[in-house]
Amino acid sequence: MDIKAFKMDGLGNDFVIIDQRTQNIDLSKDQVIKICNRNFIGCDQLIIIKKNRKLDAELKFYNSDGSPSGACGNGTRCVASFLSKENNQKEITVWTSSGVLKSNILGNNLIETEIGIPKTNWNEIPLSEDLDTKNLKMKILNKNNTEHVGGTAINVGNPHIIFFVENIENFDLKKIGPEIENHKLFPEKCNVTLAKVVSKNLIKVKVWERGSGLTKACGTAACATAIAGNINGFVEKKTDIEFELGKLSIFIDAKNSIYMKGPVSDIKNIEIKI
């Protein structure tokens, strides 16, 4: 099977995008895993674009382990840029399983997406028991086996936990990530972020994504971190979240809705033989 596809990324968080509006493609879980494998094509997530009668498109997201994902902030921004070029649109609205998302095309590959209002109740994360989501009091160990206790849980279309630490490099996220992702407290698993507050308007992060592992950036993690930082009084409602390759700007409006702004790459056409 030959598939026409595209590659894009947001700050190194990379995607294979398949436009199902122009070709009838039905991928199995094993085929999704193969496409995402770095020894084949390689990406953090695979995105399927489908027709929607009322909106610009419908999006389906898949993690690199083949599991479906409810939301993908950077992926949504990439697809918005892709779709905007079809009719020179400045506003793109798409359906996702976690809600309808609207993006503004700002020029120079800069895209802003409204992610919506976060969920902070324990049963909305979801957690397996009723706990204070502001501080789950979960224990993680740094590289010196020193214990850190904390963790703020947020759902922004998918579940996240954010640990605010003094130095993110002191922690082995490749070890901590899968342990927390698969913890019994998270029945739907979770994304794991280590965050260092630099100022009232800047947080540095490292992310372990549910179903994908370590990634260079994650849009929903940026949103969840900004909300968690604001809830804990660490940052203001407008803050930058810094990843390895750059920053995403997050703004929380008066209704508590989250806006995420940042760059996306150019579009690269690829062909997949699978």
Descriptive key words:
274 residues, alpha+beta, Diaminopimelate Epimerase, Chain A, domain 1, 2 domains, 17-stranded mixed sheet, two-stranded antiparallel ribbon, 4 helices, 19 strands, 16% helix
Give an overview of the whole structure.
- The protein has 274 residues and is α+β, with helices and mostly antiparallel strands.
- The chain folds into 2 domains: 2-116 and 262-273, Diaminopimelate Epimerase, Chain A, domain 1 (Roll), CATH 3.10.310.10; 138-256, Roll (Diaminopimelate Epimerase, Chain A, domain 1).
- The protein is built from 4 helices and 19 strands.
- A hairpin with a 2-residue loop joins strand 1 and strand 2.
- Tell me the span between the first and last alpha carbons: 5 Å
Q: Which CATH class of the largest domain is shown? A: Alpha Beta
H/E order of the elements? EEHEEEHEEEEEEEHEEEHEEEE
CATH fold assignment of the largest domain: Diaminopimelate Epimerase, Chain A, domain 1
For this structure, what is the CATH homologous superfamily of the largest domain? Diaminopimelate Epimerase, Chain A, domain 1
CATH architecture of the largest domain, by name, is Roll
Assign an overall shape: globular
> So how many helices?
4
Strand content: 35-45%
**Model regions low in confidence, pLDDT < 50 over at least 5 residues:** none
Derived from helix and strand composition plus strand pairing, the structural class reads alpha+beta
Main sheet: strands, sense, barrel: 17 strands, mixed
Helical content stands at 10-25%
Radius of gyration: 18 Å
Number of strands: 19
What's the number of structural domains?
2
Round the mean pLDDT to the nearest integer and report it.
97
